[in-house]
Amino acid sequence: MCPKWLTEDGFEMQLGVNHLGHFLLTNLLLDKLKSSAPSRVVNVSSIAHKGGRVHFDDIFFEHSEYSPLESYRQSKLAVLLFSRELAHRLQGEKRLQPAPALSKRGVTSSACWLE
């Protein structure tokens, strides 16, 4: 089972790695991406997002039992929601046009997120 880890900044690790870091980097680079078009932002999510929900009242599992699978699902749903909102906010931008893509990949080599 994957233990609950925290980032150096105190965020739950899966949300920090799978979503928050990409969110921050994208926002820091957005003006540069717009000015150097054609540009592309690629966010990778997972079908696991379908079983997830964002726990806005306890996003880092500080007051509830930690579940590696629920944490993973939440992080991948956050990626998807961010990507959709980014696409919405950039709608009409001629220089940056986000688009979804689907890819069938293999199963992860570690099943710890299933436990």
UniProtKB/TrEMBL annotation:
GO terms for molecular function: oxidoreductase activity. The keyword Oxidoreductase applies. Gene3D superfamilies: NAD(P)-binding Rossmann-like Domain (3.40.50.720). Keywords: Oxidoreductase. The keyword Oxidoreductase applies. The lineage of its organism: Eukaryota, Metazoa, Chordata, Craniata, Vertebrata. Belongs to the short-chain dehydrogenases/reductases (SDR) family. The gene is RDH13. This is Retinol dehydrogenase 13-like.
